[in-house]
Amino acid sequence: MDGPTQGALISIVVPRCVLPQGDVPEVEFHLFYDASEVAYGAVVYSKITTRQEQTKVQLIMSKTRVAPVKAVSLARLELCAAQLRIEVFS
Question: ∠ at Cα 62 (34, 53), nearest 5°?
């Protein structure tokens, strides 16, 4: 790839580590899911508390699905979202 964007692409840094450096006494994962008539989804957040009482909340992963074209009850879509939440976290 040549051109003016080549340098810009090289400078992008994506942090991969979820845990901060040092001693982390408390890590929590929070999972949420929801559904509507058009879509459903699930999300995982981490909450990290350090010994200095600093708290960091970070999005770990999210996933969405479009609801089926065939009419499905909202209760069934909520169950699909709950199943998606389990798949996201495992």
Answer: 100
Tens digits of residue pLDDT in 49-84: 888 888 889 898 899 999 999 999 999 999 999 999
Domain residue ranges of the chain, discontinuous segments joined by +: 19-89
Nearest by Cα to 44 from 55, 33, 52: 33
Burial class of residue 85, CB neighbours in 10 A (0-12, 13-18, 19+): buried
Q: What contacts 31, CB < 8 A, 6 or more positions away?
A: 42, 43, 44, 45, 85, 88, 89
